[in-house]
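Retro notes, item 3 of 5
We never archived the inputs for the ME8 complex last cycle. Fixing that now. Sequence and ligand:
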Amino acid sequence: MNKRFYITTAIDYVNGQPHLGHAYEKVIADVIARSRRSLGQDVFFLTGLDEHGQKVQQAALAEGKKPQVYCDELADVWEKFAKKLALTNDDFIRTTQPRHKEIVQASLAKVNAGGHVYKTTYEGFYSTKEETFLTEKDRRPDGTFDPSYGEVIRLKEDNYFFKLKGEQQWLIDYLEANPSFVQPDNRRNEVLGFLRNNELEDLCISRPVARLNWGIPLPFDENYVTYVWFDALVNYITVPAAQGDDTVPKALGAANSRSPAANGQLWPADVHVIGKDILKFHAVYWPIMLKALGLPLPKQIVVHGWWQKDGQKMSKTTGNVVDPIAVIDEWGLDAFRFYVLRELDIGPDGNWTDAGFRARYSAELANGLGNLVNRSLSMLKRYRNGVVPARSDELAADAAKAVAETRANLEQHQLQSALQTIWSLITRANQYVDQTAPFKLAKDPAQAKRLDEVLYNLAETCRVLAVLLWPFLPGTAEKIYAQLGVKGAPEKFASANWGGLAEGHSIGEPAPLFPRKDV
Ligand code: ME8
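Structure as it came back at the time:
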């Protein structure tokens, strides 16, 4: 079976409306997926929703709805949101789907049969908000728990535990031997530091039905449902199994009901894109779960930072939020995608300001890219009737440099650097207009050949830019192609090679890409 490039996002809790953080993560994954496709790889991109657990049950209850009804209503909103972001996901998982329940139960049965699970009485602290058991180590020096845990109660309960003790050393060795497993490096060091300085506690993977019934029943004890994180992480292998990759059913000893090899092999994932707050689940619990399941580890976990708004945590209660849908409706999707990827590298935390957004829109999109494309094509239309002159290579070396650098950036998931590289070509081409002054050349018939050269270099640079921009700003890239009168979509990186525009080709109609806004 051929192995496809398999990329996933975190699956979002369906306990509210999508916000900037969710949108940011999905756009990162989409750009990586699109760029890999553009570079010629066979890609499978998965995103979806985390629908079980207490957070969702409580949110449903607060609206007086049955959890499933509540989830179905919101899933519709989230699936529309994925379309609004122009995500090119190949599947959309919801953890309430039967295909997922089947794989979670098969996974639990396998780890149980393998001796990785035991039942015991737990007595201690429990954070309802985070659905997590806390220990003395989680107390702050003054004896209290971090307010992020919400109300912490004392609890005595029989539960099932997944063994983590003793799994520490191989994971440390693995992280040391595979420096790219968790990226960026500071996140990898965070995981290594955690593993070196703490003894792993076994993970409680059940919740008694009497306390929480919104979950997948344990296959070996119907009085319990599965802890939401054990359920959620399994989504990454549910979909490969559902898509006919027999790696997962073989490991789980489950029947493979789908036609194998229909869609190629997905597992192991090539990239899990996640936020910094859920690193431990992905870089510690998930590898240990996979080892117990007899499955290979994902190749890479890419960890992004968190957005704030105006230097403050975004919070619905204070109204300090960025609504991505409102931004997209006002400014367009590509302006949104551009700002989040250009402003914030994958790793550190970022700060959204409306002024910063407008400044980038105006300087880089309207005056930078928009102006270059509009004046290049308008002049070709005006001075040459829209007919492409003979090839000229004056900007070919600049373009080739940008193409090579962008390719290297994309292969390393350096999305911010790729945009900087692409904008250096835009800046170069805008300077070229100013230096060669085609509007002056047009006034002198003796300069006709020189004008031809300039017009070719500008139009061809616009075409190359469309190809480089496509993973980031797909709508804009397609508009540039349409305005150039080039058929098809600029979706193959190989077509960024210089010289694609043929002499005698007639371009389409120029139109502003990013209308200036007087704000
Ligand atoms: O954690 N900035 O779901 P979730 C950037 N269901 N990213 C942010 C953010 C912000 N302000 N706020 C949240 C869950 N995120 C689980 C995941 S995966 C098997 C299960 C990111 O809806 C967050 O870091 O709370 C996470 O990666 C994603 O949004 C979903 O968060």
